[in-house]
Amino acid sequence: MVCLPQPDAETLARREDIRAALCAIVPGEGVISDQDELRPYESDGLTAYRQMPMLVVLPETVEQVSQVLRYCHANKVRVVPRGAGTSLSGGALPLSDAVVLGLGKFKSILEIDYDNRVVVSQPGVTNLAITEAVQDRGFHYAPDPSSQIACTIGGNIAENAGGVHCLKYGLTTNNVLGVEIVLIDGDVVRIGGKQLDPAGLDLLGVVVGSEGLLGVVTEVTLRILPRPDTARAVLLGFPAVAGAGKCVADVIEAGIIPAGMEMMDKPAIECAEAFVGAGYPLDVDALLIVELDGPAAECDYLITEVEAIARANGASFVRISQNEEERLRFWAGRKAAFPATGRLAPDYYCMDGTIPRRRLPEVLERMGAMSAKYGLGIANVFHAGDGNLHPLVLYDANQPGQLEKAEAFGEEILRLCVEVGGVLTGEHGVGVEKRDLMPAMFSEVDLAHQQRLKCAFDPDMLLNPGKVFPQLHRCAELGRMHVHGGKVSFPELERF
């Protein structure tokens, strides 16, 4: 189980004063303090971890967000920003002495600029709503996580969300052009805009994926893309997982970049097919869904190439979508795979790590051995094209010890990802889930530099504390100099 920062007794003693001050900033029903009404905020999508917040505030304007943060900064009150709460890494897990700042009321699309191919949106707008707003004009927003019907753009920015079509079109960071962000002292700052690659420091690259540690995003400028002329999906079934993994590497090696390339193992295939009826084969151990898009002639040619590569790797099943309805049905099974897996166990732990594509067969084999070791089942549904794994560790929280086993199993998977040359997260973020594993990937020097960046934005460490960093230092500690014999190292260098 994860540990959170110790609550500050002095802050808890001031709870009523804090509530009154926030009510003055956000009047009406903008502040939640009743214990029963706070209950929906006690966790995010990683429901194994729960913590009741001290208070929840739901501002409606940028000025209210600014005033809330300014007050919390002046009074040393911790703040946990929250979008829709779909995070799977505990990124929005509250603290008992913190104010949860929810952006659920920021749900308007402010501008659609087709000439510049951008949408300006508030952070509480859902991912899918962006595409729905522009699809009549033949446009779409490329990142499409499986939770796109519920997850919000603000949360996507916090975690740098991905999706099934990010292999070709990039993750959130590749599709955000600008943000308006409110800093902990209440200052409102604009970074980027409608232009591509503004001059100066890449602060936009810092903000996207910062998990609520640097500020609160209140407006987003997103890039939208024209829908391709043609999109066709092909189902490829393999009698062995190794063949499917080798096929993924061979497709990319051939210079083919599909719009999406997803992989499912046998347990996931069977669950998704029973749930959706997408037409998946049930006599295979692994299934690839490969989508090609672009001009019709190009799609036809690339599908032929992909089919040849698949058959060379032992594919026993090939089915090509014949119309848009069938293509969407292929993807419907993949999009529903996570909830469908609920048929296999009362609970599952959704992991997120990324590995080099060529190591897929080896990693899947080793995860199978781990499953036997821990006595827990596993289902694999993941973005095979970019090596972003999402193993689902199956367990029953009502059985003593099974949650702890699931956590240990998940930790071993993530350590394996790093061991083979991958990283701890592809799109879910670090949060509290992977926080204590950061030293497996980063040295102490790396982590100290990351925390120095945090200090530049939030010197009092008030925004989302207890997340990402396994050991949180005070900014003064990170900036201190070693003095020996009355001298500092490299005295000729200018000190800041």
TrEMBL record:
Keywords: FAD, Flavoprotein, Oxidoreductase. Residues 49-227 form the FAD-binding PCMH-type domain. The keyword Oxidoreductase applies. One of its GO terms (molecular function) is FAD binding. Pfam families: FAD-oxidase_C, FAD_binding_4. The keyword Transport does not apply. Its cofactor is FAD. It comes from Aurantiacibacter rhizosphaerae. The lineage of its organism: Bacteria, Pseudomonadati, Pseudomonadota, Alphaproteobacteria, Sphingomonadales. SUPFAM superfamilies: FAD-binding/transporter-associated domain-like, FAD-linked oxidases, C-terminal domain. This is FAD-binding protein. It comes from the Bacteria.
